Amino acid sequence: MPTHWYTGTVSRILVLSPGTRQFDLMVMGEDRTFDFIPGQFITLDLPVSDKRRDRWRSYSIANEPNDKNLIELCIVRSPEGPGTRYLFEEIKTGSEITFKGPDGGFIIPGDLTKEIVMICTGTGVAPFRSMIRHIMQNNMPFRSIHLIFGTRRQEDILYREEFEQYAKENPCFRYSVALSREEVKGFHHGYVHGIYMEEYSKNTPDRYFYICGWSKMIDEAIENLILKSKYDKTQIRYELYG
Ligand SMILES: Cc1cc2nc3c(=O)[nH]c(=O)nc-3n(C[C@H](O)[C@H](O)[C@H](O)COP(=O)(O)OP(=O)(O)OC[C@H]3O[C@@H](n4cnc5c(N)ncnc54)[C@H](O)[C@@H]3O)c2cc1C
Hints:
Blueprint: E1 5-17, E2 20-28, E3 41-45, E4 56-60, E5 70-76, H1 82-89, E6 96-103, E7 115-121, H2 126-137, E8 144-151, H3 160-169, E9 173-179, E10 188-189, H4 192-200, E11 207-213, H5 215-228, E12 236-240
Parallel strand pairs: 7-8, 7-11, 8-9, 9-10, 11-12
Antiparallel strand pairs: 1-2, 1-6, 2-5, 3-4, 3-6
The site of flavin-adenine dinucleotide has 22 residues, from strand 4, strand 5 and helix 1.
């Protein structure tokens, strides 16, 4: 089937942290709802190169499926990157963006009777926000979900109020934050690895790990879980951002 390209109009830009913004896209000119599975991503075609493939940048959808044709993207500015330079400097409310998707098999767990541990750093939280909001808003029963989020400083924490609220309302949902560059009461000081290795280093077949972010963190997590803690590789799913 030929790729279908959509046009999205940027309806809102929110500053989430000093380096991160949420871009809300309204899908335009479609007579059907833009549907996706929580965890999937879209690919933007940004005018940053003459070569088609060099213009493509993928972003996880950070909100839950909805009937408003609204897509929320949570994007961190990369210091040298042409894609995020374009998004942060050229894109304004009302700008149009061409995109394709949804794509990807890193999706909401099919079996919520297992223990789910979600591990992410920075904007790697995006697919988990979509999954968790979908579960909470639809009152889907689940056994346990532990979201472990890592970033440098307190000011870089993304969607903190939302996740704290879910944790308050639902005893089966836990939210832990690791800060690598700042020691703050109530947060783990260090990397995400310290949190899950302390709690989950003894393996059980009923536990599944979902990991999202950049290669350094994911490689280390896989090494810890498979080589040190002897989890089976079928218990680990991940989405690699780069
Ligand atoms: C399936 C998928 C989903 C993605 N979802 C998101 C998302 O929801 N939010 C998001 O912000 N990004 C996401 N990304 C990354 C995104 O596609 C771009 O790679 C990123 O925005 C950088 O684009 P750029 O043009 O600015 O820099 P590029 O020139 O493409 O990147 C420069 C280099 O820096 C690396 N890099 C870029 N940012 C970081 C970082 N923060 N930490 C470590 N290395 C980095 C890249 O891997 C690359 O090697 C996703 C990637 C994939 C493959």
